[in-house]
Amino acid sequence: MHLYTQSLSPNGQRVSTFLREKGIELPMTEINLRAGENLSDEYRQMNPFGRVPVLELDDGSYLSESQTICRYLEGLHPDPNFFGTTDEEQAIIEMWSRRVELNLMMPVAQAFRNITGFFKDREKVVPEWGEVSAEVARDAVAIFNDHLGTSEYLTGNRYTIADMTLAITLNFAKEVGQDLLTSEHIVRWHKLVTGRPAFA
Ligand SMILES: N[C@@H](CCC(=O)N[C@@H](CS)C(=O)NCC(=O)O)C(=O)O
User: Fold this and answer.
1) pLDDT, tens digit, for every residue of 22-40?
2) Which domains does the chain possess?
3) Which of 51, 66, 121, 168 to mutate to test the pocket of ligand 1 (most atoms within 8 A of CB)?
C-alpha cells in the first residue's frame, strides 16, 4: 500500500492521526496542493476529483475519501477499534461522523476557501458564501457543545473516528482564523482528545 497525501491538510491529518492511533506505518508521498500536483491528469487517474488523500492498494487500485481509507485500514488492523463493533455502535459512530463532516467540516472548509481565496487558481470564490458558511459552522458547534455537555465523547464514553474528525476540524478552523473553541463543553472535550499521543 502507498499513501498519497498532504499531511498538514485536514483530510490528510485524518488519515495520519488514524495511522498513529493504530500504530500503522505506510510508505507515503507528499502531494504539493499549492503547486496543483493533485490536479494533474496522472493524479486524477487515482482520484478523478483531484483531492488528497488517496491510498493505493497492493493490487494497484485506489481508495480516496479519508474516512473510507480509515475504514479499510480498520478492517486490516481491527484493534484498537474506532468504528464500532456491534451494528448499533457502528451506526451511532457513523451518524456522528457524518454530522461532523457535513455540518461542520464542510462549512469550515467552504468558509476558508471562499473568504481567503486560497484556491482561487482552481475554483470560483464567493466571499459572501464564505461568510454564510462561517456562520453555519458556528451554529453547528453550539449543537456539538450541547451534546458534549451530557456525553464524554461524541459517542458516549468511547473515543472514535468521529472524535478524531471533530478535533482535526476544530484545530484547522483555529489555524485559519475561525476559532470555534469558545464553549465550555467542547473545550473540555477538545483537551481530552488532543491530549492523546496521536495528536502530539
Ligand atoms: N471528502 C474528501 C475531501 C478531500 C479534500 O477536500 N482534500 C483537500 C485537502 S483537506 C484537497 O485535496 N484540496 C486540494 C484542492 O482542493 O485542490 C475526503 O474526506 O478525503
Assistant:
1) 999 999 999 999 999 999 9
2) 2-76 (3.40.30.10), 87-199 (1.20.1050.10)
3) 51
Give the pLDDT confidence of 70-109 residue by residue, as tens digits: 999 999 999 999 999 999 999 999 999 999 999 999 999 9
Q: Read off the C-alpha cell for 95.
A: 451518524
Q: Which atom of ligand 1 is nearest to the CA of 113?
A: 16
> How many angstroms separate the CA atoms of 190 and 69, rounded?
24
- Mean pLDDT score across all residues of the chain: 98
pLDDT at 36: 97
Closest residue CA from atom 16 of ligand 1: 51
